[in-house]
Amino acid sequence: MGAEEETNKTWPPWLKPLLREKFFVQCKLHADSHKSECNMYCLDCTNGPLCSLCLSFHKDHHAIQIRRSSYHDVIRVSEIQKFLDITGVQTYVINSAKVVFLNERPQPRPGKGVINTCEVCYRSLVDSFRFCSLGCKISGISKKKRKEWTNNLSDSDDSYSSTSIGRLKKNDDIMNNGFMPSTPPLSAVNRRIAKRRKGIPHRAPFGGLIIEY
């Protein structure tokens, strides 16, 4: 299994498609409705943003609602934490509800006196958070796992090479010292067979050939 396949197993299959979507566009199926804004997403189908009317086709599915803050997509913590571990992601309070941003929001430069920043985009963070958004967490954790996978592969190659070199050196030492593994002793049956010798052929009086065993 390659590094990319290994890191993909870390995240649910709907997460990366979710972060690539563009929300708050008009629904093509319900363009005539005043509820045609696409701000919903089905985690089971992962077939693009949905409007509230589209949800009737996704009964008993897991759907989440995307919201907006300063032209950026956010999701309430109470919704996303049911399906995803958001540990390390900075949370914000918007309209009395805790939210996390879906994707990174780079800053030109960190503010003065800022000690903690996002490990990926270097946006200023508070407390001990590591990432400013879900997208940055995926990027940061995946990069770390790929590095670990590469290091483990390199260690395995080094170990295999060391073992092979050790075996070759041992074989060279055996040959140089004139030592070869001893031949196993003959068994009683093999000794009897080894003692047998073919007799000297004698010609019979009438021209026949008699062979003694």
Order of helices and strands: HHEEEEHEEHHEE
Tell me the distance between the termini.
65 Å
Strand order in the sheet with the most strands: 3-4-6-5
Number of strands: 8
The biggest sheet amounts to: 4 strands, antiparallel
User: What is the helix tally?
Assistant: 5
Helix/strand/pairing category: alpha+beta
Q: Strand share of the residues?
A: 5-15%
Mass-distribution shape: flat
User: What is the mean pLDDT?
Assistant: 80
Taking all Cα atoms into account, the compactness measure Rg is: 37 Å
Please bin the fraction of helical residues.
25-40%
Low-confidence stretches: 208-213
Keywords:
about 210 residues; alpha+beta; two-stranded antiparallel sheet; 5 helices; flat; disordered C terminus; PLATZ; PLATZ transcription factor family protein
Describe the fold and architecture.
InterPro entries: PLATZ. This is PLATZ transcription factor family protein. It comes from Arabidopsis suecica. With 213 residues, the protein is α+β, with helices and mostly antiparallel strands. Strand 3 and strand 4 form a beta hairpin. Helix content is 31%, strand content 12%. The chain has helices at 3-8, 15-20, 77-80, 134-176, 188-195, and strands at 40-42, 63-65, 67-69, 72-76, 92-94, 97-101, 202-203, 209-210. Mean pLDDT is 80; it is low at 208-213. The longest helix is centred in the last third of the chain and has 43 residues, at 134-176. 15% of the residues are buried. The chain contains 5 helices and 8 strands, in the order ααββββαββααββ. The protein starts with a helix and ends with a strand. The strands form 3 sheets. It has a 4-stranded antiparallel beta sheet. A two-stranded antiparallel sheet has the order 1-2. It has a two-stranded antiparallel sheet with strand order 7-8. The radius of gyration is 37 Å and the shape is flat.
